[in-house]
Design brief:
Elements (H helix, E strand, L loop, with lengths): L1 H21 L6 H8 L3 H7 L3 H24 L6 H18 L7 H9 L4 H28 L8 H22 L3 H14 L2
Length: 194
């Protein structure tokens, strides 16, 4: 049983890597099997289809997202603005570390999958909603303590920050340059400051 669980974990981890590097549609099951070193029967033992497999990959990314948000937003010794910026920096650091070949998994998957599979679109939408709720809550706390300006809805501010971050990630990937990321971080600090 342990070996079976290990192969499932290895398959999901491979999908996390390959889907970001080559996209969902650009990654074949044989490529996944080759990376993990398991036969096709192992894949179909755990997943009935590539779509079900993608759901498992998205779920694992969601687990990692929740861990990252808990760690970053749980640092109450930092001001709300610093927590928000730290979260943005963490996402952006992954883009730079990949030499601009990978983006935010939810942004990448959302762009590719939202029009081809409602089954896959739903968990991506839920992940974005979780990010939005966490950002909104942090902004509310900043408004309450006076460290974030209060002349706009915290939910609208969270939407703006998410959209700006996703746009900067795309621009950085296209330019193969971190300047869009740095500009959005600078603008985010200014945007939040009262």
């Amino acid at each position: 049983m342990r070996e079976s669980l290990d192969s499932k974990t290895a398959l999901v981890e491979a999908g996390m890597d390959l889907f970001l590097a080559h996209s969902y549609q650009g990654t074949g099951i044989n490529e996944i099997l080759k990376q993990v070193g398991v036969p096709k029967g192992s894949f179909y033992h755990h997943f009935t289809s590539k779509e079900q497999y993608a759901l498992a990959v998205i779920a694992r990314y969601r687990e990692k997202l929740e861990e990252n948000m808990a760690e970053t937003f749980g640092k109450t010794s930092l001001s709300p603005t610093k927590r928000i910026v730290a979260f943005m920096q963490r996402i952006m650091r992954d883009i730079v570390d990949s030499d601009y070949t990978r983006g935010c998994p939810f942004g990448s998957f959302g762009h590719e999958l939202s029009t081809i599979s409602n089954t896959l679109r739903q968990p991506i939408e839920e992940a974005f909603a979780a990010i939005h709720a966490t950002l909104t809550d942090c902004i509310k706390k900043g408004v309450q303590d006076g460290s974030i300006r209060g002349n706009e809805s915290p939910a609208h501010m969270a939407t703006f920050l998410m959209a700006a971050t996703q746009g900067a990630i795309l621009m950085a990937k296209v330019k193969r340059d971190r300047s869009p990321l740095d500009e959005v971080l600078k603008s985010a600090r200014l945007y939040l400051t009262p």
